[in-house]
């Protein structure tokens, strides 16, 4: 349900009862008389001067063609509302945010065995560092840097007969949108210019930590990164992480409560590349960014915020999206800390 021009006297979080863990049974006020749609538009307008402070990703040629002066923000709440402003229905490239979905699929398939092949520590190095992977004998520091996500892609290729189709089906199920697709131009562009990711994969293969053939693993990884999605759809897709693993609009258990906690913990420490510590310090929410210009932030027992704008800072995070989420969290008092 798309909500427009509505004022919220309360925000509805998920509160668990002993008898029915999936029902919203009471509301907790967070901030009175907040017109979320108007607030989102106000914050979006304030961020327009920031377009010039970033640069659209150009190491993937297809992404370099995206017009820079675009922005959107959307909030999906656990009670089924969606509030948005700007180009919130404009598709963009999912890129590294796809790592969240792949990780959940791999955790569901392998359980704790996954953590024998990938760690869960912040990297302290660039997200595509080869040096760190060499030092640590082919064990990626965490699953949301590139080496870790490629390892996760190997798990999916090795455990699904058609892993690309399985990933797409999973994303469509979470969004309830059957028209989600992989952008072929972006996919082919990444295949052609993915040499550094190939180096990471072959290095892990040399240490015995990649089971499938490297070209097949890379094809899956680039395909999931090339998914086209918009802010409203992405916020809705990740609601289960704000709701202890249960997707509220379908009441489906997507992952266990423990795994939802683990994913949020990893996003809190490592989801924003080399700005993860700064984002946790200033905003205080689990989050993941992608070089397509989007950032998602999980607000447990409330909902999911997605902001998008293509120009990136030197860390690979959207300048406008970071500011939007930071200001929104401040306005609504959404920090976990």
Automatic annotation (TrEMBL):
Keyword Membrane assigned: no
MF terms (GO), sorted A to Z: glutaminase activity
InterPro entries reported in the protein's UniProt record: Beta-lactam/transpept-like, Glutaminase
SUPFAM superfamilies attached to this UniProt entry: beta-lactamase/transpeptidase-like
Keywords: Acetylation, Hydrolase
UniProt record, GO biological process: glutamate biosynthetic process; L-glutamine catabolic process
Chain sites annotated for binding substrate: 96, 146, 190, 197, 221, 273, 291
Chemical reaction(s) catalysed: L-glutamine + H2O = L-glutamate + NH4(+)
Record EC number: 3.5.1.2
Xref: Pfam families: Glutaminase
Entry-linked Gene3D superfamilies: DD-peptidase/beta-lactamase superfamily
Family of this protein: Belongs to the glutaminase family.
NCBIfam families linked: Gln_ase (TIGR03814), PRK00971.1-1 (NF002132), PRK00971.1-2 (NF002133)
PANTHER family: GLUTAMINASE (PTHR12544:SF29)
Subunit-level organization: Homotetramer.
Name under which the protein is recorded: Glutaminase
Lineage: Bacteria, Pseudomonadati, Pseudomonadota, Gammaproteobacteria, Chromatiales
């Amino acid at each position: 349900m798309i909500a427009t021009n509505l004022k919220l006297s309360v925000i509805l979080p998920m509160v668990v009862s002993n008898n029915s863990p999936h029902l919203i049974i009471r509301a907790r006020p967070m901030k009175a008389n907040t017109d979320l749609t108007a607030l989102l538009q106000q914050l979006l307008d304030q961020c327009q001067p920031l377009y010039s402070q970033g640069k659209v990703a150009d190491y993937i040629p297809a992404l370099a063609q995206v017009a820079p002066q675009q922005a959107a923000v959307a909030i999906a709440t656990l009670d089924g509302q969606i509030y948005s402003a700007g180009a919130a229905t404009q598709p963009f490239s999912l890129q590294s945010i796809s790592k969240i979905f792949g990780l959940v699929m791999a955790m569901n398939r392998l359980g704790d065995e996954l953590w024998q092949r990938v760690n869960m520590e912040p990297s302290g190095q660039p997200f595509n560092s080869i040096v760190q992977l060499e030092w640590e004998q082919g064990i990626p520091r965490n699953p949301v840097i590139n080496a870790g996500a490629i390892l996760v892609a190997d798990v999916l290729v090795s455990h699904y007969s058609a892993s690309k189709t399985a990933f797409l089906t999973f994303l469509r199920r979470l969004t309830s949108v059957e028209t989600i697709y992989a952008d072929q131009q972006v996919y082919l562009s990444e295949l052609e210019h993915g040499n550094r990711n190939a180096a990471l994969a072959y290095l892990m293969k040399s240490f015995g930590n990649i089971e499938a053939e490297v070209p097949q693993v890379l094809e899956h990884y680039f395909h999931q990164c090339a998914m086209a999605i918009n802010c409203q759809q992405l916020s809705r897709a990740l609601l289960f992480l704000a709701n202890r693993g249960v997707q509220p609009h379908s009441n489906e258990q997507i992952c266990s409560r423990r795994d939802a906690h683990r994913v949020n913990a990893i996003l809190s420490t490592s989801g924003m590349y080399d700005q993860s510590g700064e984002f946790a310090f200033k905003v205080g929410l689990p989050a993941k960014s992608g070089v397509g210009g989007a950032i998602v932030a999980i607000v447990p027992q409330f909902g999911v915020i997605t902001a998008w704008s293509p120009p990136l800072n030197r860390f690979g995070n959207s300048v406008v999206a970071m500011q939007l989420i930071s200001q929104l969290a401040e306005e609504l008092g959404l920090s976990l800390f």
